[in-house]
Design a protein that fits this description.
There is one protein chain. The longest helix is centred in the first third of the chain and has 28 residues. The chain has two domains: about 110 residues, no CATH class; about 80 residues, no CATH class. Helix 2 runs parallel beside helix 3, helix 4 runs antiparallel to helix 5 and helix 7 packs antiparallel against helix 8. It starts with a helix and ends in an 11-residue tail after the last helix. It is about 75% helix and about 0% strand. The chain is mostly helical. The chain is built from ten helices and no strands.
Length: about 210
């Protein structure tokens, strides 16, 4: 009887964990950039500029205020996904980390956009400042410095997330749930920026404040 009760309890716990991960994924999947441009301009942002639904392309298509709002909303959904799980299961580090991962995957592979989405920068900021504030602060500092020097958001993002992942590995002294997520996120963000990397190598990547010829 005791074994049966434990199995039932574990089964209920697994179901609850699955619901938390599904909720985090769906939250991450909300395509705020797409929705804002559709509302403001009446067009599909995916057909304009770079075709991305993130801050930079929304800024380019709809204006600075809507690009910034997109970034803030993406950050908020990443932070909220971690917060909800942490409130429900404060001692369950693996579930908290996996909720952050689910939100990131939702942003990149949105169920609402046929499993296509953004590049994961905004939601990663929300997730990692919630989970790893010190490495994330260092990554943000690198992003700001690189952006100020080179004026390329993509380069700042790539170097910032790489700094965050490297410092997390250092502070965690190897692979843990947290450093594993940080490294996976860095790899995913490099992958989502593969077209930007090609343009960087060709010298054609867009720069802040520079108009296209």
């Amino acid at each position: 009887m005791l074994t049966s009760a434990n199995e039932k309890q574990n089964g209920e716990k697994n179901v609850n964990n699955a619901w938390h991960l599904l909720a985090a994924y769906l939250l991450g999947s909300i395509p705020f950039g797409y929705l804002l441009v559709k509302w403001v301009k009446g067009i599909d942002v995916r057909t304009q500029g770079s075709g991305n639904i993130g801050m930079t392309n929304v800024w380019r298509v709809a204006g600075a205020q809507w690009g910034i709002l997109t970034l803030l909303l993406d950050i908020a959904k990443g932070a909220l996904a971690v917060y909800i799980t942490r409130q429900a299961a404060p001692e369950n580090d693996p579930l908290i980390v996996l909720s952050g991962l689910a939100a990131l995957l939702g942003n990149i592979f949105s169920v609402f956009l046929k499993f296509k989405g953004g590049k994961g920068i905004g939601v990663s900021v929300g997730v990692f400042f919630s989970l790893l504030p010190i490495p994330s602060s260092a990554g943000l500092a690198v992003f700001i410095v690189v952006l100020a020097i080179g004026r390329m958001i993509s380069v700042g993002s790539l170097l910032g997330v790489t700094t965050m992942a490297g410092l997390t590995l250092y502070y965690q002294q190897g692979l843990t749930w947290y450093s594993g997520l940080a490294c996976f996120a860095a790899v995913m963000i490099w992958w989502t920026h593969r077209q930007n990397i090609q343009r960087i190598l060709k010298g054609t990547e867009n720069k802040i404040g520079k108009k296209k010829a």
